[in-house]
Amino acid sequence: MDEKTRPGPKRSLSADQIVDAALALFDGEAPSIRGVAARLGVRPNTLYTYLPDRAAMERALVDRFLAMADPDLLTGRRSWRRRVEDYACALRGVLLSHRGAAALLHTAPMDGPTSALVGERLLAIFVGAGLTPTHAARSTYAVIVHVLGSATLTAADLNGYTEQDIVTARLSVTIDPNILPLTAQTWPVVATWNTEEQFRWSLRTLLNGCAETA
Amino acid sequence: MDEKTRPGPKRSLSADQIVDAALALFDGEAPSIRGVAARLGVRPNTLYTYLPDRAAMERALVDRFLAMADPDLLTGRRSWRRRVEDYACALRGVLLSHRGAAALLHTAPMDGPTSALVGERLLAIFVGAGLTPTHAARSTYAVIVHVLGSATLTAADLNGYTEQDIVTARLSVTIDPNILPLTAQTWPVVATWNTEEQFRWSLRTLLNGCAETA
DNA sequence: GGACAACATTGCACACCGTACAGAGATAGG
DNA sequence: CCTATCTCTGTACGGTGTGCAATGTTGTCC
């Protein structure tokens, strides 16, 4: 088990370094094995000494992202709604600042230590809010779904542009009120679907529904 | 504009045929251009006569999936909650029966005619439920996020197994109550996160929150 | 009817991708 | 020193999306 006691040449890398490089190269989607290897000045095959396959790299990246949004935001003396909202927005920010990260979260299983921690804290929050353990578990999943789903949709739509760009671009589209009357009527709001404002609104609405079950 | 009036050989295919083939080959993820071409007995480049690129094929697939869940479920005399729930469950079913479809929905922009129709009908439902147009638009997006997010997470977890398989597999895992007390306590519920029951619960909870804003 | 322009389709090629496999060199314990 | 073990590389295979020039078919106009 001791790392020092095994024969063979010293390792020139570590799994962490690989994830670091992958994170640095992350742009729209998880970088290729070959790209990461190139940045590390190494042949692609070398990475297979540290990772079984590309999926492992993606899983490691997922855990990184979850940790980058500070899970401590889920604790503290603020109201429980506030704590959920703060962490949710932080996570959304991380996922949007790394395009494609959200899609990764949806693809790679979230079985890392950070996701367990986040789940536990969300459960604690809902129990503390007066929900039964069952409803707390249900609510926890509902919140996770909302955050990941929303971030993924927004990330796909943003595509590197700013929130404002998207809104104004959408506003410049005109909808035929004869075909889609309500869409046309509510277009100014629909145009803001991928904004933080909408994100907070739907999260709060969801939390209201959860609170009702207490 | 007349299709008949242009020179050159007759087209041997149509965009629809391509999407048909892609749908037939769909398994876990959208098939490759080369695979679809092979099934149609044609060289890969031929497809580029009908589609600008692979992304277009994916967008067309997305619209197909949305249409496969019957959007007419959104209309009728049933209660508005019921209509939303029915279509949502139908869409969930379609997305789960085609692994990887949900991820596609999240990646490819939903700008097809069916998504417009679904959006319009959801708006109508919420307006009919007494919400202001603004809140209706917000609620519509919240519902879309929930359905797609939930389906994507579940599809990734299901991975070809049945709902029951996943639940029992999860139940057989034991969580250390010293590290994650609430997770351990609520594990029987957490194990059912990827079931239709959880899906309906969170959707109803979300709809309750939406109804509150009326 | 013949010329011409527009078009669908193909063959070939390029630049990627993940990764399997065998071998070369380095390093530890015996 | 010997040998087992480990890292890293060279090479290769089968796959991907798609750009480009050539081929042959088809319609319209003179």
UniProtKB/TrEMBL annotation, chains A, B:
Gene3D superfamilies reported for this sequence: Tetracycline Repressor, domain 2
Superkingdom of this protein's organism: Bacteria
The keyword Transcription regulation belongs to this UniProt entry's keyword annotation: yes
Keywords: Transcription, Transcription regulation
InterPro entries per UniProt: Homeodomain-like_sf, Repressor_TetR_C, Tet_transcr_reg_TetR-rel_C_sf
Domain Tetracycline repressor TetR C-terminal: 76-212
Protein name, UniProt field: Transcriptional regulator, TetR family
